[in-house]
Design brief:
Layout lengths: L10 H24 L10 E9 L6 E8 L4 E2 L4 H10 L22 E9 L2 E9 L2 H8 L8
Antiparallel strand pairs: 1-2, 1-4, 2-3, 4-5
Length: 147
């Protein structure tokens, strides 16, 4: 091959790689979204949260959080999570990150998915973090589903 000649992969190979990546992303997130129950009727501000550990379906935990005068639902940290969501006006990405958290650089992916209603508007959130520590540092107690 002459000097200065770049080698590129055939266009079909790049398209096939992109299609495979999209298929992988949709197959890992689909089980998390498919497990979501129907929204509660007339419950005011509420969020259904799911945490999917790893890359295999079936390692998910979910909880329903209803924030009213007294937080209810099966979320283990309901009062704290409602307080954080109220301060962020229902915007999950606006929950302040814990700047003091020191997380290990271990890749153990975890995907957080949430949907619900807050102040009469739909709320949705989905993000994959490198590990549980990074998830908790970024989202407070909302996705802490272990007691």
């Amino acid at each position: 091959m002459p000097l200065g000649t770049a080698t590129t992969k055939p266009r079909g190979t790049l398209l096939a790689a992109a299609a495979a990546a999209c298929a992988l992303l949709t197959t890992t997130a689909a089980p998390v979204l498919a497990a979501a129950p129907r929204p509660p009727a007339g419950s005011g501000d509420w969020v259904h949260v799911t945490v999917q550990h790893g890359e295999r379906p079936g390692n998910a935990k979910s909880a329903l959080l209803r924030c009213s005068a007294r937080p209810v639902g099966d979320h283990p940290h309901a009062a704290d999570a409602c307080r954080e969501l109220t301060a962020a006006k229902g915007d999950i990405s606006a929950i302040p990150a814990d700047s003091d958290a020191i997380c290990p650089m271990i890749f153990d992916p975890v995907t957080a998915v949430a949907y619900g209603m807050w102040d009469g508007r739909h709320v949705s959130y989905a993000h994959t973090f490198s590990n549980t520590c990074a998830l908790n540092a970024a989202t407070g107690t909302l996705f802490r589903l272990d007691d």
